[in-house]
């Protein structure tokens, strides 16, 4: 028979686990876990097994563990993580490529029905076509101002209808209609909202930058430095080629004007 651990013992075990992860890993993905079920979380853990570990827990407990770890080891590089622990979030410690890990996590989204009271994460559009419902169900469509007609003994939606807008709460009528149509409009999974690496925190959008994007942004920056240098007549490496060319043009213009070779 397994011995049931006390709450204090559970906290101590959690603290040891988190501290061992902080010792071993330098890269962490902060993931929002709203509407993610335990089975879905198990699938994500299984998919990431090998070079990544998913850790869930109360934000206050994680903050305390990080603070204790920093006081004990003198390593305060993980302190920025504490400010990111807001809402229902979890931590993914990884040694793999951050972009690849995020893409792996995104594979485990599952469809979900539109439950009453949920805030819609996306627009919900009901497509036109035959619904398969009998004419007695037309009241649902009339309440929601959805144009329909009876075709071969079933209700047919005539035009696409934006049933729910992103950010709106799902009403009982919308929820019932979508359930009858068999539409599961929402999908949920771990959503990466912040990335931590070696003491730095940045947005997950940074992971989408390619080498070409970086070169383009660098070239834009060099161009701005060169323009500012030329305007101020202040020499910099970025402006030097332009200054030499402009100087050569001025000398050439004088030589041409004075017939001096």
UniProtKB/TrEMBL annotation:
GO cellular component entries: cytosolic large ribosomal subunit
Gene3D superfamilies: 3.30.70.1730, 3.90.105.20
A GO MF label: large ribosomal subunit rRNA binding
Alphabetical GO biological process terms: cytoplasmic translation; ribosomal large subunit assembly
InterPro entries hit by this protein: Ribosomal_protein_uL10, Ribosomal_uL10, Ribosomal_uL10-like_insert, Ribosomal_uL10-like_insert_sf, Ribosomal_uL10-like_sf
Coiled coil: none
Pfam families noted in UniProt: Ribosomal_L10, RL10P_insert
Entry annotated with the keyword Cell membrane: no
Large ribosomal subunit protein uL10-like insertion domain residues: 114-183
UniProt entry keywords in alphabetical sequence: Ribonucleoprotein, Ribosomal protein
Family: Belongs to the universal ribosomal protein uL10 family.
Record function comment: Ribosomal protein P0 is the functional equivalent of E.coli protein L10.
Name of the molecule in the record: 60S acidic ribosomal protein P0
Lineage: Eukaryota, Viridiplantae, Streptophyta, Embryophyta, Tracheophyta
